[in-house]
Each structure stands twice: as C-alpha cells, then as structure tokens.
Design a protein that fits this description.
The complex is a heterodimer. In chain A, 70% of the residues lie in helices and 0% in strands. Chain A is built from ten helices and no strands. The two termini of chain A are 18 Å apart. Chain B is mainly α. Chain B has a domain of 45 residues. Chain B has three helices and two strands; from the N terminus they run E-E-H-H-H. Classes of the chains: A mainly alpha, B mainly alpha. Chains A and B meet through helix 1, helix 2, helix 6, helix 7 and helix 8 of A and strand 2, helix 1, helix 2 and helix 3 of B. The complex binds zinc ion. Zinc ion (ZN) sits at the interface of chains B and A. Zinc ion sits at the interface of chains B and A. Chain A: It comes from Terracoccus luteus. Chain A: This is Putative cobalt transporter subunit CbtA. Chain A: Keywords: Membrane, Transmembrane, Transmembrane helix.
Chain lengths: 312, 77
C-alpha cells in the first residue's frame, strides 16, 4: 500500500533537486544584476529611497571598501554612478554622503552586534541556503499534494499530474504574485513601505492559492457533467479572471529611483522569474519520474493476485 | 476510502492499464498540514524575517538569505 509518506519523501528529493537548480540559475543569471544594483546603491539618486534595511547594503559597500584597501573605492563608485547615469544631486546633499563617507559598521541598529554577512557569502552560501530551504519545503508540499492528486484528476497519468501540479504551483505561487508585485533588486524600493509591501505580497500569494483552490473545486464540479477538457478550461479561466482582476485592483508601488538603469531592473526580474521557474522545473520533473516509479512498482507488486511479486 | 481507479497505460506499458492508488483524504490531511506549516515557516524566514517583522534580533538572518530573498521574488527593501 502506498502511503502519503512515500510521496512526501519523493517530494523532498524533488525539492532538493529544484533548490539546487534554482541556486544555479540564481547564481549565474540573477547575481550579476544584484551586484550591479548594489554597486549603484551608494550613489546619489538612489539615496532617497534608502530604508532601515540599508545597513545590509551599506555593510556590503563597506566590505568592498575594505576588500580593495582604499576607501576611495566607494566614493569613486558613487561618483561614477552619479556622473554616468544619474541627474546631478539637487537641493538635498542628502543621506548618501553619510552613507559613503561613514562606511563602518551598521551602527544605526543598536542590536546588530556587528554580525555582518559579507557579500561573498550572501551571493553564494547564503543564496544556496535560501533556495535549498524553500526548495525542500515546496518540494515536500508538492509531494504530498501529488499523493492527494494522483487518481483524482480524471484520466491524467502520474507523470502528467506531477507536471501539471508543478506548472500550476509556479503560476499560483510565483507568476501571479510577480505580476502584482514584481520583485525588485537592491536599491529599488522605499523603506517606508516595506511593511505594507510585505503584507500585500504575502496576501497576494494567499489570494492566489484561494483562487486556485476555488477553480479546482469548480472544475471538479463541472467534470461531473462534462469532459475533462471542458472542466479544465472552466477552472483555468476562473482562476485567470479572478487573479488578473485582483492584480489590477491591488495597490501598486512605483518606487524605482530616477536614473536607475532599466536594463538592470529588467535583468534582475528576468533572473528572478527564471530562478522560480528552475525551482519548479526541477521539482516537477523529479516528481514525475520518482512518483511514476513508485506507483508503477506498487502496481506491479499487485498486478495479479495469483502472481508473486519478483523484485526487478 | 481506498478504492482504486483503472487508468490509461503509460507509454512504456501499453498492454495493461496502470492502477493508480487513491490516498484517502483523512490519512493525507496531517501530512498536508505538516507540509503547509513547513512552507509557511520557511517562507517566512527566507522571505520576510528581519524585514517588516522579526522574531530574532539583529540582521543576521536577513543578511544570510538576502540574495535568495531578492531573487526568489520576496520584497526586501
Ligand atoms: Zn535587499
């Protein structure tokens, strides 16, 4: 008898694969734009949007300053950025001067106690930690979800169910929230709105999940009287309409600093989307293979009551 | 509730339809709950801790997963 735990184990394995794949894509495709954004961050035009969170990147800046021995580096970077792509800093001589001129320690938060993670770790081991942990958790959920879905979605095979599940999860958990609140690289986004943006982002993810559940229920209801294709189309359309209307009406934020290069913003968002896609491609393919093997093995073992199961 | 459906054969085994197991919702529910809680916890710590809210003092968690937070699409700044 196949238990849900068998599916969970395969889901965790799939999550491991997805997480590693996501790390690879994030590191190769996403990191260059993150680095560009951070190097732009010390500059004048981006200063007004600096947030409480700025200590992270100030620390990063500090690292690069220390790393290259001369304190001139940061100033040079800022100067370059200012000169090359940004309008001259106007009336407000502003925060950035302090940011660049006082590179040491994130002293603003009294409770930080100097635990600063250097950029070299944030972009490697730290990135791996985040993608792997989220991969494992989402993979585990996908495994359990597949265990529940197998045999319940019309005539879909195990492999087809796994791929539809992974594709659906990508759309519901990432693509739709992405449309409502496109992710931003460092240096983009106001510190004053981080609270509301975080709440709205997670709220959007939650609503998207609710809409998907609703579409699933309605689709299964339609399936009682119509074929699988019709039921699928009705479910997908319902989800699409509900989520797109929601995307259109939720508050949006226009916080890209003047002068921030559009190319960097585009490359970052592209890298982010590809990272999430890689996560679910890894989860979906791995689950399709392993869960199919699980079910086929189980099926073979019970193929015929009169036959003994001979291990292959 | 452990009834089974007879399904189409997969491409590699055309001769006999593959019997798909249908796991009962009752037995799946605790695992589903566990998985959802896991996703919630990981999603929170990777995606939001020491941003808008924090459980631990300081900035270490935020900084460690910082690039993952950005690239996985969570609001960071
Ligand atoms: Zn950040």
């Amino acid at each position: 008898m196949i238990s849900i735990r068998d599916f969970l184990v395969r889901g965790l394995l799939a999550g491991l694969v997805g997480g590693v794949l996501a790390f690879g894509v994030a590191y190769l495709v996403g990191e260059p734009s993150v680095e560009s954004a951070i190097s732009l961050e010390g500059s004048a035009a981006t200063a007004p949007v600096h947030s409480p969170d700025v200590s992270t990147h100030r620390a990063a800046l500090h690292d690069s300053v220390v790393g290259s021995v001369t304190t001139g580096t940061a100033a040079d970077t800022a100067q370059f950025a200012t000169a090359s792509l940004l309008p001259p800093p106007s009336a407000a001589p502003s925060v950035d001067a302090t940011l660049v001129a006082a590179p040491a320690h994130g002293g603003e938060h009294g409770d930080e106690e100097g635990t600063m993670v250097p950029r070299s770790l944030q972009s490697t081991l730290g990135l791996l930690t985040g993608t792997l942990l989220l991969g494992l958790a989402l993979g585990g959920l996908a495994g359990v979800g597949l265990g529940v879905a197998v045999g319940r979605l019309g005539r879909l095979t195990v492999r087809a169910t796994a791929l539809w599940l992974a594709g659906g999860a990508f759309v519901v958990l990432h693509a739709v929230p992405f449309l409502a609140y496109p992710p931003n690289p460092p240096a983009v986004g106001s510190g004053e709105t981080i609270g509301s943006r975080t709440g709205l982002f997670f709220g959007m993810v939650g609503l998207s999940v609710v809409f998907a559940a609703l579409a699933l229920v309605v689709g299964r209801q339609v399936h009682r009287t119509h074929d699988g294709f019709t039921a699928g189309v009705v479910g997908v359309l319902l989800y699409a309409v509900l989520s797109l209307v929601t995307v259109a009406v939720v508050p949006s934020y226009d916080e890209v600093p003047a002068g921030f290069p559009g190319q960097v913003l585009f490359e970052f968002r592209q890298g982010s989307l590809l990272t999430q896609l890689a996560l679910w491609v890894g989860i979906g393919l791995t689950l399709a293979v392993t869960a199919n093997r699980l079910v086929a093995g189980h099926d073979a073992a019970h193929a015929d009551g009169s036959r003994e199961h001979v291990p292959a | 509730m452990a009834h089974v459906h007879v399904q189409d054969a997969t491409a590699s085994a055309p001769a006999r339809p593959l019997v798909l197991p249908v796991v009962s919702l009752r037995s799946a529910a605790p695992w589903l709950l566990l998985a959802v809680v896991l996703v919630g916890l990981v999603g929170y710590f990777v995606g939001a801790e020491q941003g808008a809210t924090s459980v631990f003092a300081g900035n270490a968690v935020h900084e460690w997963v910082h690039d993952a937070r950005h690239l996985l699409g969570f609001p960071c700044h």
